[in-house]
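Hey, resending since the last one bounced:
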Amino acid sequence: MKFGTAGLRGPMRDGPDAMNTATVSRATWAVAAVLRARGLAGATVVAGRDARYHSDEFARATAETFAAEGFSVVLLPRPLPTPVLAFAVRRLDAAAGVQITASHNPAGDNGYKVYFAGGIQIVEPTDRDIEDAMRRAPDRISRAPVTPTGERLIDEYVTRAASLRRGPGGLRIALTPLHGVGGDTAVEVLQRAGFGDLHTVAAQFDPDPDFPTVAFPNPEEPGATDALLALAAEVGADLAIALDPDADRCAVGIPDTNGWRMLTGNETGWLLGDFLLSRLTADEAKKAIVASSIVSSQLLADIAALHGARHVETLTGFKWLARADDGLPGHRLRYAYEEAIGHCVDPDAVRDKDGISTAVVVADLTATLAAQGDSVPDKLDALARRHGVHLTSAVSARVDAAAVMARLRATPPHKIAGVEVGVLDLAGRTDALIFTGPGLRVAIRPSGTEPKVKGYIEIRRRPTDDLTGARDDAQRLMHTVETATAELLQRGPN
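The structure tokens again:
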């Protein structure tokens, strides 16, 4: 198996190209070899796991292999959210951490996610170094017994996440962990933060590796949050929260004039960026960095400028977003997000996306607005009046990604849906093309986890008080652009 986004992810079966104990042991031996080569022999490492099939077995193999290689191993005591692992690595100043999880992948998959110093996902050349070491791994890999740690690190995470609540007021919250490991931790954190009026989707609350009530355990998938929104409507909730199975991502549902709906990741990003920056002093804002990825909305940059903060655009993935303040001495990362419902709201504690901490801050925002006589839809309207209507969407196609990208580079379109566009080729940094024109941006890149090409669309309109007209106009263009982009992905510009 090859290292992809921060590690390994794939189907559980026998063989070197799949997730099994042998693959996990080789990967761990390789991580240990890389750490030793960097002068970190004997350092502290942390191992954690979700509740998928074989996760316990894989986490124990990870911990015991590290122990046999001479490292000081902290094995988390039970299935826990990925952000707890990332927190523990940072809190302990550990050299590395491994979370056994396949995140929101189907039930038959599992994964091996690697963090190095600071609790940050690995990047090149570390992933290549680990791959190279895996090829040198011996046939027989030694293991040594490891006793799981206690609850102290978990309680420290819960305390820290709960402390992110700053404002007044109460809320009624509907919550689902989608059969993953986030339920108990999220409930404890929200209760400690003062949000005790919680209602959970009972059929989805306990960890279940079969994910029986959803076609795909991903809050972004159609139908995945239907039970959550039904519960929210039934109990008269003020806010709905869906976590993905390892609880590093958070999807937000709100009531508006047409009933309940899920916010896009970009909408949540705008709200959180504005809210977190608004809590800073002017001097703090000058040194603050907020970050978003190249496929996310451009609005966060405008929000940052209004608050006097600096916006950084990174390559796709939290392994890059978590490093947004690298090389910027005197500046401090305060918030980062990507459109795929990943948000980092407390970078000092968790340098990765964290669905549970995000839930606290979203609840804090919602309660604060309610205390002011406002609502989340009101706040979105205020942002649109100030910065203009921004409408985002995405299309994808299961095609030969390399062939499509080659065609688009060779003969890029001069117009998309009748809008004249120029092209920015990010080759050398990443495999992506950005097409921009008046009020239009389309970012096209191969998926990092699936055999498909994705197009990320943003329509922008100038600030106006006529939000209904601007949104209707943007929506009409969006339909046309979605069709045109889908055609580009299928057959290129010709």
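Residues 7-150 form a domain with the Alpha-D-Glucose-1,6-Bisphosphate; Chain A, domain 3 fold (CATH 3.40.120.10).

Sorry for the duplicate.
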